[in-house]
Amino acid sequence: xxxxxxEIIQALKERGLRVTPQRYGVYANLLQRRDHPSAEQLLFDxxxxxxxxxxxTVYSSLKALQSVGLIxxxxxxxxVCRYDxxxxxxxxxxxRHCGAIEDVDWEELPAVDLGQLRPGLKAERYEITVHGVxxxxxD
Length: 139
Prior knowledge:
By secondary structure, the protein is α+β, with helices and mostly antiparallel strands. The protein is 30% helix and 19% strand. It has helices at 5-14, 21-31, 39-46, 55-67, and strands at residues 72-77, 80-84, 90-95, 101-105, 129-132. A 3-stranded mixed β-sheet has the order 4-3-5, with no helix packed on it. Helix 1 crosses helix 2, helix 2 (21-31) crosses helix 4 (55-67) and helix 3 (39-46) packs across helix 4 (55-67). The radius of gyration is 17 Å and the shape is globular.
């Protein structure tokens, strides 16, 4: 169930963020999406009705939201930063044809044994990105 306007405002305040129309807009937009948009896609969407946000404002809003753990940056392809409001541990599936990105529940894939890393490496977290073809593009 999507968060209400009041719940979004409360989430921002609880994390110590000043509630601005731009932060609210960016966070509300990300909460209703599952496609892991880039900053440019967010800017385009936010300015559909009337130009209200600049690229710099969107980037600073994303940085602020990320710094308090409300969103996370997802690097699924080289050189493209995408953003996700689902901050719970999960994996991703990326379609190589259409570029669709889908969350994969953590429990759907077997756990990785991080004890197999060479001595001296101390793992903190991991996620798996599965690349393939979605049912819409089927090979």
